[in-house]
Amino acid sequence: MASGPQPGEHAPDFVLAGGALDGDAFERRDYALSAAHGRNVVLAFYPGDNTAVCTKQLCSYSSGLDTFEGLDAEVWGISPQGVDSHESFARAHGLRMPLLADTGREIARAYGVAAPGIGVRRSVFLIGPDGVLRWKHVALLGATFQSLDTLAAKLSGIRTA
Q1: Which end of the chain has less neighbouring CB within 10 Å, N or C?
Q2: Model confidence at 159: pLDDT above 70
Q3: What's the predicted TM-score (pTM) here?
Q4: Residues 85-101: b if buried by 16+ CB within 10 A, e if exposed
Protein backbone atom coordinates (compact mmCIF):
# COMPACT_ATOMS: atom_id res chain seq x y z
CA MET A 1 0.00 0.00 0.00
CA ALA A 2 1.50 3.31 -1.08
CA SER A 3 1.52 6.03 1.52
CA GLY A 4 0.50 9.61 1.00
CA PRO A 5 -2.10 10.91 -1.43
CA GLN A 6 -2.56 9.17 -4.77
CA PRO A 7 -3.38 10.85 -8.10
CA GLY A 8 -7.09 11.64 -8.20
CA GLU A 9 -7.27 12.32 -4.46
CA HIS A 10 -7.37 15.73 -2.80
CA ALA A 11 -3.92 16.85 -1.72
CA PRO A 12 -3.57 17.30 2.05
CA ASP A 13 -3.92 20.99 2.91
CA PHE A 14 -1.28 22.65 5.04
CA VAL A 15 0.05 25.98 6.27
CA LEU A 16 3.82 26.38 6.55
CA ALA A 17 6.09 29.32 7.30
CA GLY A 18 8.33 30.25 4.42
CA GLY A 19 9.68 33.01 2.32
CA ALA A 20 10.70 34.06 -1.16
CA LEU A 21 13.19 36.47 -2.65
CA ASP A 22 11.54 39.56 -4.07
CA GLY A 23 14.34 41.66 -5.49
CA ASP A 24 16.75 42.15 -2.58
CA ALA A 25 14.15 41.43 0.10
CA PHE A 26 13.33 37.98 1.46
CA GLU A 27 9.58 38.21 2.09
CA ARG A 28 8.51 35.92 4.93
CA ARG A 29 4.93 34.74 5.30
CA ASP A 30 2.76 31.69 5.83
CA TYR A 31 1.87 29.61 2.78
CA ALA A 32 -1.45 27.71 2.73
CA LEU A 33 -2.10 25.20 -0.03
CA SER A 34 -5.81 26.05 0.08
CA ALA A 35 -4.97 29.69 -0.74
CA ALA A 36 -3.49 28.56 -4.08
CA HIS A 37 -6.76 27.04 -5.35
CA GLY A 38 -7.40 28.09 -8.92
CA ARG A 39 -3.74 27.61 -9.87
CA ASN A 40 -1.56 24.57 -10.38
CA VAL A 41 0.96 24.02 -7.60
CA VAL A 42 4.24 22.13 -7.90
CA LEU A 43 5.33 20.91 -4.46
CA ALA A 44 9.01 19.99 -4.56
CA PHE A 45 10.07 18.22 -1.37
CA TYR A 46 13.86 18.16 -0.99
CA PRO A 47 16.19 16.86 1.74
CA GLY A 48 18.25 19.95 2.47
CA ASP A 49 19.35 23.50 1.73
CA ASN A 50 22.81 23.91 0.20
CA THR A 51 23.30 20.25 -0.69
CA ALA A 52 24.58 19.44 -4.17
CA VAL A 53 21.57 17.77 -5.80
CA CYS A 54 19.01 19.98 -4.04
CA THR A 55 20.87 23.10 -5.16
CA LYS A 56 20.98 21.86 -8.76
CA GLN A 57 17.28 20.92 -8.68
CA LEU A 58 16.02 24.17 -7.18
CA CYS A 59 18.27 26.31 -9.39
CA SER A 60 16.77 24.49 -12.40
CA TYR A 61 13.22 25.14 -11.22
CA SER A 62 13.99 28.76 -10.29
CA SER A 63 15.50 29.49 -13.70
CA GLY A 64 12.41 27.89 -15.26
CA LEU A 65 9.85 29.92 -13.30
CA ASP A 66 8.72 31.69 -16.48
CA THR A 67 7.83 28.28 -17.95
CA PHE A 68 5.85 27.39 -14.81
CA GLU A 69 4.14 30.80 -14.82
CA GLY A 70 3.14 30.22 -18.45
CA LEU A 71 1.38 27.04 -17.27
CA ASP A 72 -0.36 28.95 -14.45
CA ALA A 73 1.68 27.10 -11.84
CA GLU A 74 3.39 28.09 -8.62
CA VAL A 75 6.45 26.17 -7.44
CA TRP A 76 7.05 25.71 -3.73
CA GLY A 77 10.14 24.04 -2.29
CA ILE A 78 9.62 22.24 1.04
CA SER A 79 12.33 20.88 3.34
CA PRO A 80 12.91 20.36 7.07
CA GLN A 81 15.22 23.38 7.50
CA GLY A 82 13.97 26.57 9.09
CA VAL A 83 13.15 29.83 7.33
CA ASP A 84 16.52 31.38 8.26
CA SER A 85 18.30 28.53 6.45
CA HIS A 86 15.95 28.95 3.48
CA GLU A 87 16.72 32.67 3.31
CA SER A 88 20.46 32.07 3.19
CA PHE A 89 19.99 29.28 0.59
CA ALA A 90 17.76 31.49 -1.58
CA ARG A 91 20.16 34.42 -1.37
CA ALA A 92 23.24 32.27 -2.11
CA HIS A 93 21.70 30.85 -5.29
CA GLY A 94 19.19 33.52 -6.36
CA LEU A 95 16.24 31.14 -5.89
CA ARG A 96 13.01 32.97 -6.71
CA MET A 97 10.37 30.44 -5.61
CA PRO A 98 8.98 30.22 -2.07
CA LEU A 99 10.90 27.88 0.24
CA LEU A 100 8.77 26.43 3.04
CA ALA A 101 9.93 25.15 6.43
CA ASP A 102 8.51 21.74 7.41
CA THR A 103 10.71 21.57 10.51
CA GLY A 104 8.64 18.87 12.23
CA ARG A 105 8.20 16.94 8.94
CA GLU A 106 4.42 16.78 9.52
CA ILE A 107 3.72 17.72 5.89
CA ALA A 108 6.34 15.28 4.58
CA ARG A 109 4.57 12.57 6.60
CA ALA A 110 1.14 13.63 5.27
CA TYR A 111 2.49 13.28 1.72
CA GLY A 112 4.22 9.98 2.49
CA VAL A 113 7.75 11.27 1.84
CA ALA A 114 9.26 11.40 5.34
CA ALA A 115 12.19 8.99 5.45
CA PRO A 116 14.20 7.71 8.40
CA GLY A 117 17.82 8.80 8.27
CA ILE A 118 17.59 11.25 5.36
CA GLY A 119 14.55 13.14 6.66
CA VAL A 120 12.65 13.74 3.43
CA ARG A 121 12.62 11.89 0.11
CA ARG A 122 13.16 14.03 -2.97
CA SER A 123 9.72 14.15 -4.54
CA VAL A 124 7.41 16.26 -6.66
CA PHE A 125 3.62 16.55 -6.43
CA LEU A 126 1.60 18.33 -9.13
CA ILE A 127 -1.67 19.64 -7.73
CA GLY A 128 -4.38 20.91 -10.05
CA PRO A 129 -6.33 24.15 -9.58
CA ASP A 130 -9.09 22.11 -7.87
CA GLY A 131 -6.69 20.88 -5.14
CA VAL A 132 -6.60 17.36 -6.57
CA LEU A 133 -3.26 15.57 -6.91
CA ARG A 134 -2.67 14.98 -10.62
CA TRP A 135 0.83 13.42 -10.67
CA LYS A 136 3.63 12.57 -8.29
CA HIS A 137 7.14 11.22 -8.35
CA VAL A 138 8.94 10.01 -5.23
CA ALA A 139 12.64 9.18 -5.58
CA LEU A 140 13.94 6.14 -3.76
CA LEU A 141 17.53 7.37 -3.56
CA GLY A 142 17.20 11.03 -4.43
CA ALA A 143 20.37 11.46 -6.50
CA THR A 144 18.27 12.62 -9.46
CA PHE A 145 15.28 14.90 -9.83
CA GLN A 146 12.41 15.47 -12.24
CA SER A 147 13.44 17.91 -14.96
CA LEU A 148 11.74 21.18 -15.80
CA ASP A 149 10.75 19.71 -19.19
CA THR A 150 9.10 16.67 -17.56
CA LEU A 151 7.15 18.84 -15.13
CA ALA A 152 6.13 21.30 -17.86
CA ALA A 153 4.82 18.40 -19.98
CA LYS A 154 2.82 17.02 -17.02
CA LEU A 155 1.44 20.50 -16.23
CA SER A 156 0.42 21.02 -19.88
CA GLY A 157 -1.69 17.90 -19.56
CA ILE A 158 -3.41 19.26 -16.46
CA ARG A 159 -4.21 22.55 -18.10
CA THR A 160 -5.80 20.97 -21.14
CA ALA A 161 -7.56 18.19 -19.23
Answers
A1: N
A2: no
A3: 0.93
A4: bbbebbeebebbbbbbb
End-to-end CA distance of the chain: 28
Whether 59 is catalytic: no
Measure the CA angle with vertex 126, ends 71 and 116; round to 5°: 145
Residue among 54, 97, 101, 115 flagged as catalytic: 54
Query: Rounded mean pLDDT of 76-88?
Result: 98
Residues with Cβ within 8 Å of residue 26, at least 6 apart in sequence: 19, 20, 87, 90, 91
Closest to 81 measured CA to CA, from 96, 103, 97: 103
Q: 3-class DSSP state for residue 98?
A: coil
Kindly calculate the radius of gyration of the chain based on its CA atoms and give it in whole angstroms. Answer: 14
